[in-house]
Amino acid sequence: MAPSRLAVEQAAREAGKKIEIETICVESAANCLKETGDTALADQYFERYLRLHQKEYHAFVIPQVPLTRIMPRIRDLDTPVFDSMEPFMEELAKGN
Q1: Are 14 and 95 in contact (CB under 8 A)?
Q2: Burial bucket for residue 29 (CB in 10 Å: 0-12, 13-18, 19+)
Q3: Angle in degrees, 0-180, between the axes of helices 27-36 and 39-53, rounded to the nearest 10
Q4: Is residue 54 within 8 Å of 79, Cβ to Cβ?
Q5: Count of C-beta atoms within a 10 Å radius of residue 46
């Protein structure tokens, strides 16, 4: 996470943006996965978190594996969702 964080901070500086980065662990999803191994149920917890908190963030960067599974269900979120830092940093550099 540290190299990605540094890269995003650098991209923000270059774009003249002040940003805050928050690393989030959706505990309910992580615990569900650890206790049951049920990815579908864990994904439901994850999706619920995104929906409940989407107004609190300007963007989400989500690891590709869970995003691949839940993307069809979260396309309607108001908050942009990225599958990796690269597209997020490109959007940041554009000034969006």
Answers
A1: no
A2: buried
A3: 170
A4: yes
A5: 23
- Give the global pTM: 0.77
Contact 42, 29 (CB under 8 A): yes
In the predicted structure, residue 22 carries a pLDDT above the cut 80: yes
- The count of residues in the chain is 96
Tell me what the mean pLDDT of segment 45-66 comes to: 88
Contact 57, 79 (CB under 8 A): yes
- CA pair distance 95, 58, nearest whole angstrom: 13
CA pair distance 1, 12, nearest whole angstrom: 16
Residues 17 and 92: beta-carbon distance below 8 Å: yes
Look at residue 43 and tell me whether its pLDDT is greater than 70: yes
Question: Considering only CA atoms, which of 68, 20, 21, 70 is closest in space to residue 49?
Answer: 70
Q: Are 83 and 67 in contact, with CB atoms under 8 Å apart?
A: yes
